[in-house]
DNA sequence: TTGTAAGCGTTATCAC
DNA sequence: GTGATAACGCTTACAA
C-alpha cells in the first residue's frame, strides 16, 4: 500500500495525502481525518527509504565502539539505544576491535549509509585527523574516550578523579606500594594514571615507573598474567607489608582477581584490589570486588541526546561545543576492606 | 558527487556509468576502467538510499534481543555483527527488555525500516502468532530461544544436554539434592529443566518440585535472594550432607555466588554450584565458577548466515527449514570441585 | 556497446 | 485547500 494507491482510493492527490499525514496546516481537518482513517484501515506504512531519499534525513545514528563483548561498552550502547528509541532514531552499530583500519572502515561504511550522525568511542591509537575529517561531513559526538582534539560534543567521565579516589582508598587502607594495571594507548588510561599520580603525591608517596603494568589490548590476558606474576613475586618478597593494586579497565581488574587466586595470593590481606569495573558480578567475585563504577548507560544516553541536538541545528558555533564529564563512584567491597 | 554528475564529466550516460560500476557484462572493459578511475578520483559514493529504494533490498538486518546488557545476549549480537560485516550487511538492533509490547513495537519498527530480514531471540511470554505473522512478511530467523512453533530457520543450543551434563556433574561430585534456579517463562528454561530431570532419573534420584526456585525476570535479583536464602536455611539444616545448585542463566548463577558468600555458605563444601554462564570472569568468581558454556557468538554468526541464505532465495520449501542445535560444554572449576 | 526513459515512493514548490 | 509537477539518486528494460 503506497501513498499513491491510498490517494486513489480517497479520490485525492498524492501530495494532499502526504500533507494530511504530515499534519500540514494547509489541509483541512476534515480531509486529515478522512485520510488518517483510511490509512489506518489499510495499515498504510510510509516507505522510509523514499522519505529519507527525499528529505535527506534517515533518522538513523551510527555507533562505533571497540568491542560489543566488553560489558562496559555494551552498557554505553544500551544507553545509546534507549535514547535513540526515545527520540525515534534507529541505531546502526559497528565494532572497531581496537583496530584503526577497522575503525576507519566502519566510519566509511556509516558515512555511505546516509546516517544522520555518528557516536564514537575511538579505538586505541585512533587517528584524530581522520576523525576530524569525518566530523566535517557529518555530526559526530565522542563518548567515553574523549581525549581528542576535536571540535564537537564530548561525553565522558572524570577518569582522573575516579583513579584518584581509588588510589586514595588504597592508601587509606594502609597501602603504600600500589601497582597500576593499564592498557596501552587508550586515551582514558592517561587521565587515570594522572589521577593515580596525584593521589600518590597528595600523600607524599613516590611514583615509581616500575609499578605500572601496561599491556597491549590484544594479548591483554597473557601479558597480564606474565607481568603481574613477575612483579608480584618480586615485590611480595621485597616488602614485608601488604600492597595495593589498581586496575584501570574491567578486564584487567577482574582478570587480576583470577590470577591472584591462582597464585594463592590473599586478597586483600596481601594485595588489596580496586579497579574500574562496571560489572554486576562484583559481589560474586573472589573476593567481592571494590570498584570504580562509571555511569556507562548514562554516557551513551547523553551522547545520543547531544547528537540529536546537533543534528537538529547543525549550524552551531564552534565555541559552542560541550564537554560533559560525569562522575564515577567508588564502591568499596571486600577486595580492599578486610 | 552523484552518478549523473559523474556521467557528465565522463561524457557518458548515467545508465552506462551505473552498469560500469556494477561490472555489467554489457560494458566494455575500457569504459569500465575509465569510469572506475574517475569515480575513485572524485571519491564517488553511491547513495545507498536511492539504490535500496530502486532495488527493494537494503542490505540491512534487524536484530531483536531482550537485553543488550546481558553478556550472553551481547555475545550473540557480536557474532551476528561479525557475520553481517562479513557478508556486507548492516545491523540495526532493538531490545525487547523481556516485554512483549516492546518486542512487538520493535518488530513493527523494523518492518517499517525496509530491512531485508530479522533475527530474534523472543522475549519471555512472546506471542507466537504475532511472530508467525511477521515471518510471512519478512524472512525471520530464531536464535537461542528457538522453542516456538514457527516455520523458519532456528539456531540454538542443546539446552537439555547442557543441563543434563551439569546435573550429572553435580551428582558425580556426590550431590544427591540439587536445587535448580530458573527464570519464569523463558522457553529455554523448560528444556533445561527437562535435562535436569532426566539426569536425576538416570541416577535414580527423585525429582522434587520444591527444589525448583523460579523467579520473574524483573525482580530476579530480589526474588533470588529471598527464595534461595529461605530454601537453603531449611535444607542445610535438614540434611547433614552437602547439596548442589544448578543455575539456568548467567545472572542467576553468578548472582547466587554472591548470595551464598554473604550467607557464609561454603562453596563447594556445603553447596556445589554450576550453571549456564558465558562470562570470562568465571575464573575470578568466588570460588571460580563451574559453567556450562554456550557458543553464543557462533549462534549469532550462524543465525545471520542462515538469514542471508534465506534472503537470497526466498522461495524455499516449508519443509526445508533447518533447526541447528549447537553443543554446549561443561567447564568444571572450583565451585564444584574441591 | 551505449543511451533513453521510466520508475522506485516520497516531499516540496508552485499554481489553481 | 487541493492538485500537478518535479525532484531525490539510482537501476533496468528497451531502443539505438
Q: How many strands in all of chain A?
A: 12
Number of contiguous helices of chain A: 12
- What is the helix fraction of residues of chain A, given as a range? 40-55%
Uncertain regions spanning at least 5 consecutive residues of chain A: none
What is the beta-strand fraction of chain A? 15-25%
Question: What structural class should be given to the helix and strand makeup of chain A?
Answer: alpha/beta
Straight-line N-to-C gap of chain A: 68 Å
* Biggest interface found: A-B, 50 and 50 residues
Q: What gross morphology of chain A would you assign?
A: elongated
Largest sheet, strands/sense/barrel of chain A: 6 strands, parallel
Spatial arrangement of strands, main beta sheet of chain A: 2-1-3-4-5-11
User: Kindly state the mean pLDDT of chain A as a whole number?
Assistant: 92
**Oligomer status:** homodimer
C-alpha Rg of chain A, in Å?
A: 26 Å
**Element-level helix/strand string of chain A:** HHHHEHEHEHEEHEHEHEHEEHEE
Structure characterization notes:
With 338 residues, the first copy, chain A, is of the alpha/beta class. Chain A is built from twelve helices and twelve strands. Chain A has helices at 3-10, 14-21, 29-41, 48-55, 71-86, 100-112, 128-137, 159-172, 187-202, 220-238, 250-263, 296-312, and strands at 60-65, 90-95, 117-120, 140-143, 154-157, 178-183, 212-215, 243-247, 271-276, 290-293, 323-326, 329-331. In chain A, the strands form two sheets. A six-stranded parallel β-sheet of chain A has the order 2-1-3-4-5-11. A six-stranded mixed β-sheet of chain A has the order 7-6-8-9-10-12, with helices on both faces. The radius of gyration of chain A is 26 Å and the shape is elongated. Chain A starts with a helix and ends in a 7-residue tail after the last strand. At the A-B interface, helix 4, helix 5, strand 2, helix 6 and helix 11 of A face helix 4, helix 5, strand 2, helix 6 and helix 11 of B. Chain A binds a DNA duplex (16 and 16 nucleotides) through residues 2-4, 12-16, 18-19, 22, 26-28, 31, 46-56.
